[in-house]
């Protein structure tokens, strides 16, 4: 009896890949669609043979950890939205994949039973969220049909009993703070209502609309609403509506002073909100799929050409900053002469586009002593006094301008930024000024971060008391990035899981060093491991880290790194077991993930990166048989051609013919090329007369392919394997079984069946 009870313990309870994938999505890709995430998770579950209850448990554990670790402010709200709005949707989709409905709810229930045993984790989450975390989560799962009423009540009773022993919070200080999960769940229907309000005709009741928007700006409402919209896939339409509103308010015709100020406010609020969305969730959320012929709205033009973002360097002399000179002159006169900004019949988009040239004029006048500092103060007060977006546009240009100046020339430009960054203390501002200034200063802080660091300048932005840029500037100064990479990987490996901060560091290093550098150095670390359990853990972690840009990493790994190791005999020793088996596993996992997802789209945080040119891959791996690729020239040095099937009747079959050619797979695609070449290389290694660690590696690679394949899946990576490889593989004792032959040949093709029959007959 004791033995039986003992044997039921699952031998492995932590799954670092699932954990890291969920953390990666929660930290970097809240706006992404759920379908790709569901497919990635299912793939990992299949390849690592994870039982469903433990799989669901790992997803919840990752959410809890992400939420507990998240920096206060926007990040915390993003994580709350991810956990309570997005992950239940992901589980609903996973339920469709696992066909028995009844069983899946049972598995979810089982996962929660396991989760309740992690009392310290739940207590910490309760503390962080200032509420009964489990209660909110169970109610959400019940709403989505993931748990039955009875299971929910049972689990809640258990947790309530546990909570009695939890370390008590001091009730006084947190009593009035509303818990985030409740706020996020309430924000979700509000998003839908706001979208409806925004659909109405703006010209009918601009004041009513202004009331709604003003309400959105107060406290943390805006970040709550944006997080809820992002987690439910509504952020794009949210942004679209604000772009339309912004466009509508750019010019006014006959208007009274009152309607002019309402229009100015609507323009300003929509402009600030959109900048804030772009900085928090990435500007691709805002840009529309360009339909040719339609006029591009002002805000889209502005954000693409004039807004400084990480990794985007602007040219301050670009034509977009040099509009019509008469408009610039009148704007300079307006800023310099009037006591405050005029609003009636003001074309805001023109003012925003002219402000950069106006600032240049004003700077020159100040540098040459034409204007005194008092005049400059008056001008900057005018710029930020009514409409904060003007200040944002001015600073956007100043940031680009400062980068181009020498050390001794920067003083006045930086002082100008300083002048624009603080709020104006005056009775005469338009309504919601304080709320708008809070958003403005957070936008400016993001914009200026890089330049201030490069020029070692301090500017005090009116703070909201939160760290507005938690994941910025993570790399330690003066340390080579290779050391940082090996260090952080060693830490992660020791811990056994990746945390949000490490994910951001890995991402920064990937941007900085490039895909080849990143992948190559991490693979070197993997090949240094000598203990079996360590290498397996390293593979699970690397596989999840590679999800930062899986497509590109796979191309580098299969197209450059593996061929390099397999064709250079001085490196064969590094392919010994255990690191060799581990690398084979990693390569197959990456190949399968990229191959199954590249029919879909890259997730949004991967799109920002520079794409290597497809041409690079075409020249590396030409397909035209007249000019064999570099790789094949390396291989064909062994004289006799042992690759051709034994009987003369088969001589017509070229040694590289594979199922993919008969299925006419598009070979201009870099991934297909790289796979075809890798399998040619494998085929040639199996057919050559020398054996060594590299032949052993190829065998592990093929075994892992067979292990990960769902039976009979057509169009898998094995379709790139030349038919001639089958007869070579069967000679390897571990692979000589009919089951393996049937798994690796494409039986939908007559030639595939013929090859399989021949190989089985030869067993």
Automatic annotation (TrEMBL):
GO terms for biological process: positive regulation of transcription initiation by RNA polymerase II. One of its GO terms (molecular function) is transcription coregulator activity. Residues 160-181 are annotated as: Disordered. The keyword Translocase does not apply. It holds the Pfam family Med24_N. Keywords: Activator, Nucleus, Transcription, Transcription regulation. InterPro entries: Mediator_Med24. Residues 168-179 have a biased composition (Polar residues). One of its GO terms (cellular component) is mediator complex. It is found in: Nucleus. Its main location: nucleus. Belongs to the Mediator complex subunit 24 family. This is Mediator of RNA polymerase II transcription subunit 24. It comes from Myotis myotis (Greater mouse-eared bat).
């Amino acid at each position: 009896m004791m033995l039986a009870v003992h044997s039921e313990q699952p031998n492995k309870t932590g799954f670092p890949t699932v954990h890291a994938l969920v953390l990666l999505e929660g930290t970097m890709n809240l706006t992404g669609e759920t379908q790709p995430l569901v497919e990635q998770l299912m793939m990992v579950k299949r390849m690592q043979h994870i039982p469903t209850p433990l799989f669901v448990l790992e997803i919840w554990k990752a959410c809890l950890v992400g939420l507990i670790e998240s920096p206060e402010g926007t990040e915390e709200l993003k994580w709350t939205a991810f956990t309570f709005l997005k992950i239940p949707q992901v589980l609903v989709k996973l339920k469709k994949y696992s066909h028995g409905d009844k069983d899946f709810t049972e598995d979810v229930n089982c996962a929660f039973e396991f989760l309740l045993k992690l009392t310290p984790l739940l207590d910490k989450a309760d503390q962080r969220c200032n509420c009964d975390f489990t209660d909110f989560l169970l109610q959400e799962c019940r709403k989505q049909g993931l748990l039955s009423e009875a299971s929910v009540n049972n689990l809640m009773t258990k947790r309530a009993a546990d909570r009695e022993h939890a370390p008590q919070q001091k009730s006084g200080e947190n009593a009035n703070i509303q818990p985030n999960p409740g706020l996020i769940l309430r924000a979700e229907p509000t998003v839908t209502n706001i979208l409806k309000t925004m659909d109405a005709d703006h010209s009918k009741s601009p004041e009513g609309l202004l009331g709604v928007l003003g309400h959105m700006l107060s406290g943390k409402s805006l970040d709550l609403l944006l997080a809820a919209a992002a987690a439910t896939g509504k952020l794009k339409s949210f942004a679209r509506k604000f772009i339309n509103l912004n466009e509508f308010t750019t010019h006014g015709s006959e208007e009274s002073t009152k309607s002019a100020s309402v229009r100015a406010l609507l323009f300003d609020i929509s402009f600030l909100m959109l900048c804030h969305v772009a900085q928090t969730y990435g500007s691709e959320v805002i840009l529309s799929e360009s339909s040719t012929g339609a006029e591009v709205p002002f805000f889209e033009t502005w954000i693409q050409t004039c807004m400084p973002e990480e990794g985007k360097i602007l040219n301050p002399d670009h034509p977009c900053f040099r509009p019509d000179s008469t408009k610039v002159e009148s704007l300079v006169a307006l800023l310099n002469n009037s006591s405050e900004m005029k609003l009636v019949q003001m074309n805001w988009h023109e003012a925003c586009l002219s402000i950069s040239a106006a600032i240049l004029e004003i700077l020159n006048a100040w540098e040459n002593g034409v204007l005194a500092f008092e005049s400059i103060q008056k001008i900057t007060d005018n710029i930020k006094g009514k409409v904060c977006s003007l200040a944002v546009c001015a600073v956007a240009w100043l940031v680009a301008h400062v980068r181009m100046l020498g050390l001794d020339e920067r003083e006045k430009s930086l002082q100008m930024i300083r002048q624009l960054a603080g709020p104006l203390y005056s009775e005469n501002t338009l309504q919601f000024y304080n709320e708008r200034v809070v958003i403005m200063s957070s936008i400016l802080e993001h914009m200026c971060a890089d330049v201030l660091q490069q020029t070692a300048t301090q500017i005090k932005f009116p703070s909201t008391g939160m760290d507005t840029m938690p994941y910025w500037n993570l790399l330690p100064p003066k340390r080579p990035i290779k050391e940082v990479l090996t260090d952080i990987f060693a830490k992660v490996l020791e811990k056994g899981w990746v945390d949000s901060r490490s994910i951001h560091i890995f991402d920064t290093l990937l941007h900085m060093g490039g895909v080849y550098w990143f992948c190559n150095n991490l693979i070197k670390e993997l090949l240094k491991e000598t203990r079996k359990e360590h290498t397996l853990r390293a593979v699970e972690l690397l596989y999840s880290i590679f999800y930062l840009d899986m497509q590109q990493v796979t191309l580098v790994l299969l197209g450059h790194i593996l061929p390099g190791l397999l064709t250079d005999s001085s490196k064969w020793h590094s392919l010994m077991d255990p690191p060799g088996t581990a690398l084979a596993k990693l390569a197959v996992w990456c190949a399968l993930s990229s191959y199954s997802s590249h029919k879909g789209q890259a997730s949004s945080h991967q799109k920002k990166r520079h794409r290597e040119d497809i041409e690079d891959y075409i020249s590396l791996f030409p397909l035209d048989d007249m000019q064999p690729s570099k790789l094949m020239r390396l291989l064909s040095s062994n004289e006799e051609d042992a690759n051709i099937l034994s009987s003369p009747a088969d001589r017509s079959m070229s040694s590289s013919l594979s199922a993919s050619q008969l299925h006419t797979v598009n070979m201009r695609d870099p991934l297909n090329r790289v796979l075809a070449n890798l399998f040619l290389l494998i085929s040639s290694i199996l057919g050559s007369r020398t054996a060594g660690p590299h032949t052993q590696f190829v065998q592990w690679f093929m075994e892992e392919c067979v292990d990960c394949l769902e039976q009979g899946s057509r169009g898998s990576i094995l379709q790139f394997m030349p038919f001639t490889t089958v007869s070579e593989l069967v000679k390897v004792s571990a692979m000589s079984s009919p089951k393996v032959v049937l798994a690796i040949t494409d039986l939908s093709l007559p030639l595939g069946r013929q090859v399989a029959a021949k190989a089985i007959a030869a067993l």
